[in-house]
């Protein structure tokens, strides 16, 4: 396996994997668009200096992804910036092998090298498997987003 920084040449593969993330999260949010739903501006994340996108390859196939983006923190917080983690994906045949941890550790290492020591990510409240995985890495629940649908 080979962990590397994503390039613009990876965009088509990454867009395909982004759709796998969308489909995996669809059961948790009935408001995700039926068609053409996207989460990330991958070309920007790859090219900007405040972010890094990583891919893990096995035999020239991307099997895991993730990104970190250094973002300004809310004015009320004691830290001026934080690392936001997203696009955390491992192909189904490769899950349960610690690959998400490998990618996240590398991303957080990049963040620490850029002066960041606080990290956030979003996860659906009903996605208990993902919550458990992130808690094993030391993440704790911080803020719950509430939603109300009015007819």
Automatic annotation (TrEMBL):
It holds the Pfam family Acetyltransf_1. Coiled coil: none annotated. GO terms for molecular function: acyltransferase activity, transferring groups other than amino-acyl groups. Signal peptide: none annotated. Keywords: Acyltransferase, Transferase. PROSITE patterns: GNAT (PS51186). This is GNAT family N-acetyltransferase. Residues 1-151 form the N-acetyltransferase domain. It comes from Pseudoalteromonas phenolica.
